[in-house]
Write a structure and sequence with these properties.
The chain has about 400 residues and is an alpha/beta fold. Helix content is about 35%, strand content about 20%. The strands form four sheets. Strands 4-5-9-10-11-13-14-18 form an eight-stranded mixed sheet. Strands 2-1-3-8-6 form a five-stranded mixed sheet. Strand 4 and strand 5 form a beta hairpin. The two termini are about 15 Å apart. Bound molecules: iron/sulfur cluster. Iron/sulfur cluster binds next to strand 7. Keywords: Lyase.
């Protein structure tokens, strides 16, 4: 995770005008109709903005603010990270979902680093946002944020993309195929949020997708649980991989709060492929409970039944077993205790203290290995066309 990167109050990298590209300028932004729909407004109905002054002053910050209602309350903050009245206020736990709907944070991302990954992607690019309007109970993003986790949008998108372009060019062509991709260096840019939802209020996702159109040795990648039809107009030209996360619908109804229903995510796959995306799936998180094997088998049967051949031919998947965290468990008990009946299973899990002192929880190694083997057997039986890129 690259969240706690910058101390509050530092000035960010110098801002350029939006679209002052080194590369050919992208075409004019396509019209977006979904972001103005009632469905989009149910997800994000921004009433207050916490913003660094530099973010408000930036072209992207001004563009975001211009789209919000005039009466939005703006609170200037010295830094986007750990705003005391937001992240440090334990009274906010009871307003967990409401804050995600009504609050936005604008900040400048100072530490622009690309990290090696090697599992889902070759590289983790500096994200264009942090936090999420959806509320998956297992989400790792709020683990170090405290008592609220609304979207923080980084407004220095030009600096972020300039960094990524330099990084891509420095790699040269990919000469050794790996499970991330046989030909292209894969850059994940949605590690700490959901780019599909960010697009409802900000063009950062569109700019990232546009940037990778002119990077023939690389591919952008992001996972999502939200179907945003506006992304279909962004013309990725095969240089962006969208990974729809799926799990048995009964689990999703309890755990994936505010996300698009799983069948809707699956049904969108062909539209995204036809619009120029590569479409993969994240089988994640796998949550163990009585009946999990039957329900995952049903989900795989559903994938096999409804996906057209052209989607199957290019699909691949990641399997990610649930990891959890003591601090998040405590927060969740304050707003969604039923989810913890599923997520918190001390008999099956073991704890490990991470480098930052947090107590992380994961399935005991023998439980995990048995379960992964069983799920891979199910995949071989039900969806033999679905290549597993990695299982973790
Ligand atoms: S969609 Fe992703 S980032 Fe958003 S709450 Fe769920 S797991 Fe977290």
């Amino acid at each position: 995770m690259d969240m706690p990167e910058e101390p509050p109050g530092r000035r960010g990298p110098e801002q350029q005008s939006l679209f002052d590209w080194e590369d050919p300028a992208p075409p004019a932004a396509p019209h977006r109709s979904f972001r103005d729909s009632p469905e989009a407004r149910r997800m994000l109905d921004v009433r207050e903005v916490y913003a660094e002054p530099a973010a408000l002053d930036s072209p992207r910050g001004r563009q975001i603010m211009a789209r919000l209602p005039d009466d939005v309350r703006v609170v200037e903050v010295p830094g986007h990270w750990r705003i005391p009245s937001l992240h440090g206020n334990d009274g906010n736990i009871g307003r967990w979902v409401r804050i995600k709907t009504e609050t936005l944070v604008l900040g400048v991302k100072h530490k622009l680093t690309t990290r090696v990954n090697g599992r889902s992607a070759d590289w983790i690019a500096p994200g264009t946002s942090n936090g999420c309007a959806m509320s998956c109970a297992y989400c790792y993003v709020p683990r170090r944020k405290g008592f609220a986790n609304p979207i923080t949008l980084f407004t220095n998108i030009e600096a972020i993309l300039a960094h990524v372009r330099r990084h891509v060019r420095a790699q040269g062509p990919k000469t050794t195929p790996n499970q991330c991709d046989p030909l292209a260096w894969v850059y994940d840019f949605g590690e700490n949020g959901d780019c599909s939802v960010d697009d409802l209020v900000c063009d950062n996702t569109a700019d990232f997708i546009a940037a990778f159109r002119s990077l023939p040795t690389a591919k952008a990648s992001f996972a999502t649980k939200f179907v945003n039809p506006d992304l279909l107009a962004l013309d990725p030209q095969g240089r962006t991989r969208v990974r729809f996360s799926v799990m048995p619908p009964d689990d999703a109804r309890l755990l994936d709060i505010r996300t698009s229903p799983v069948p809707e995510r699956i049904a969108a796959a062909a539209d995204f492929l036809d619009a120029g995306y590569e479409v993969h799936f994240n089988l994640s998180p796998v949550v163990l409970r009585p009946g999990w094997e039957r329900d995952w088998a049903d989900l795989l049967d559903h994938l096999d039944d409804v996906l057209p051949t052209r989607v199957k031919e290019q699909a691949a998947a990641e399997i990610i077993m649930l990891t959890h965290n003591q601090g998040l468990h405590d927060v969740n008990l304050g707003w969604h205790p039923r989810a913890e009946e599923l997520l918190w299973q001390p008999d099956l899990q073991e704890t490990k203290r991470s480098q930052n002192g947090a107590l992380n929880v994961r399935y005991a190694i023998d439980v995990k290995q048995r379960s992964l083997a069983r799920l891979q057997d199910l995949l071989a039986e039900r969806t033999p066309w679905l290549r597993i890129r990695y299982a973790f």
